[in-house]
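Task: sequence in, structure out. Protein: NHL repeat containing protein-like protein.
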Amino acid sequence: MADRYLKYLSIKSVIIIIVAFLLDKVSALSHNCSTTVWASYATTIAGSPDGIAGFNSTLLDDPMGIAVGKNDSIYVMDDTDSSSRLQLFYPGSQSGITIINTTSGTDLDQFDYATAINIDVSGNIYILDLGNGRVTKWAPGASTGILVAGGNGHGTSLNQLGGPWNFFVEPNTSYIWIADKINHRVVKWINTSTATLAAGGAGCGSQANQLCYPGGVFVDTSDSNTLYVADTNNNRIQKWLYGASSATTVAGQSSGVAGSAFNQLYMPFDLIVDTNGSMYIVDYGNNRIVLWLLGATSGRVIAGTGVGGVFPSQLNGPYYFTFDSTGALIVNDHGNNRIQRFPVICSPNMTTLSTTSTTAISQNRTMAIPLTTNSLTTSASE
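Result:
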């Protein structure tokens, strides 16, 4: 009797989830909404939906940087202790094609824990190599990279990187802004010789001129290179005007206090800012993606439940994210060894799922998909 009752509850739970999902979609299609809404449930577009790790064509072992390429193909940097590979997943296929495959090492055709990638409009792939303290650039089809930043050993000098984690490549100039995490600073490389200090560099701290293990950077090139930094260990987003010696806190608490309330963040890892000044933030410690509108004192959750897990509605330690050409959220669900896609189900001026959204991204961190209001395009080559 007890077994029958438990089976009934299990079936009932599944039915409730399905009905809620369908109602969510029907509601979105029936009404124009004032702001963009993403589906609560994601589909897995790379890796295992169940979070199983592996190092073959259908599984991921330690997914790091992601980027969107031509026709919404997905690039994923995947690492093990001894090997690194760059996987390409075409839309509709969960079997990845290996673009770069190498062992751990210091040569220019090797990596020592590659944490972030970036693709320019010509299809060149920039790879941030944490262990080697450098960024290399790979032309389409190349078997080795060329050095474009760092590579002078780990250190605190401006021609060195201490522990680079994430970066932003300017679309027009190819200048490289790097979150030098261990040195608690952001540096800008305009050539391969040396960098200039863009933010932080005053040690780990929570003062307005300090950062503490910054994990993400975004540069608004349409606004005089205003710099946004995911100040990870201070649980906040800092905004640095170009050339300024200190920043203002635009998301989270300026004091650095962590939390799960809507006006708090817990170890933000990554961010993108759209043309309206809205910030999309990977709130790693809270297992969610949040949206902070321009001038807002709190955000709203647009992906994840806030509780780590493997269900389609959940994330487990998300690292990075980007957008595809439809405005869908593409999330590196790192703790689950998978890449999740949360589609747009409602946005202003949108009446069906097939029309374009108004997500309005000015520059994507990956540069693969510069998005603009009502005109979502992809311009990167494979």
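Residues 278 and 293 are 4 Å apart (CA to CA).
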